[in-house]
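Recap from last week: sequence in, structure out.
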Amino acid sequence: MTATMTVTALLTTAQLLLVSVTLSHGAFSQDSPIDLIVLNSLENTNMTYSTTIAYRGILLGAMRRLQDAPNCFKFTTREDDNYGPFLVSVNGLAGNENDRTYWQLLAESNGTTIIPNVGVGCYIPKPGERIILKFTKY
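Predicted structure tokens:
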């Protein structure tokens, strides 16, 4: 009985080590590329930025990585107590209640564009996905 328990304990330890190595060096630690498109639908202009996203990382992290790089991408958010970070401005252009303008978050993958049901602080982009920040009217 003692030998069986020892073998079981050794196998369990080996499995935990294998999982640990896989998580720290395997596919889960790889950053995935995404494109971030800043689209001003009112002036018909756009800019495309390429960055990476951590495995299961949130969009806000990728946006901060872009902002820290020397590529002229800038944004501001406002924290909402109920809904988290709210995108206020991109590259100096802010939404305006009087003009009824705002930044809309869209995600495009395999030719399909969706409006995520969460914001930049919760959205988890898929590898290779195109994220669109669209300045538009409501």
